[in-house]
Amino acid sequence: MRIFIAAPLFSEAEREFNRKIDELLRSNGFETVLPQRDIGDAWTEGHRRVFEKDLAAIDGSDVVVAVLDGPDVDSGTAFEIGYSFARGKPVIGLKTDRRTFAPGEEVNNMILQAAARLVRDPASLPSAIREAAAGSRSPNR
Fold first, then answer.
1. In the chain, where do the E strands start and end?
2. CA dist., res. 134 & res. 141, Å (int)
3. 8-state DSSP, 105
4. Is the CA virtual torsion 81, 14, 107, 97 positive or negative?
5. CA 39 to CA 29: how far, in whole Å?
6. Rounded Cα gap, residues 125 and 62, in angstroms
7. CATH number of the domain located at residue range(s) 2-133 in this protein
8. Separation CA 90–CA 84 (nearest Å)
9. pLDDT in tens, 73-96
10. What is the value of pTM for the model shown?
């Protein structure tokens, strides 16, 4: 099963966290697409080319894991979530950050509704991915 990892990738801390998620998924038998490794850099490859490669990688994936940490979801990650949802791809949101978007709402409602499941512990990703791929939807409300 191929997993696309949608996540911010602009700081070394973000990139390192993404690598850890990638390693966790690969060690559980998943094939992964990690954009910072597999898509390329828009500044060197060209913005349109990276955009097209990103969409093609999502289209070629079975499930999307989206890192939702931060005071608000990264704008590129939010786009990838919306695109994935529109293409019928299950999205698993990973929120390890305890900050909230608003009292009682950990992420924006649009992101929450697009996600098949929201998990807080990276170790629970493999089972959440398998459930989502099997068509099981855990309500996020």
1. 2-6, 31-33, 63-67, 91-94, 117-119
2. 21
3. B
4. positive
5. 21
6. 14
7. 3.40.50.450
8. 7
9. 999 999 999 999 999 999 999 999
10. 0.91
The structure tokens listed for 138 are 């855990």
17-76 pLDDT, tens digit each: 999 999 999 999 999 999 999 998 888 888 999 999 999 999 999 999 999 998 889 999
Strands 2-6 and 63-67: parallel
Contact between 4 and 84 under an 8 Å Cβ cutoff? The reply is yes
Edge-to-edge strands of the sheet including 63-67? 31-33, 2-6, 63-67, 91-94, 117-119
Token readout for 121 is 């512990």
> Do residues 46 and 24 lie in contact, with contact meaning Cβ atoms separated by under 8 Å?
no
User: Distance from first CA to last CA of the chain, Å, rounded?
Assistant: 27
- In three-state secondary structure terms, 93 is strand
DSSP assigned state of 123 = G
Give the total residue count for the chain.
141
User: In angstroms, what is the C-alpha Rg of the chain?
Assistant: 14
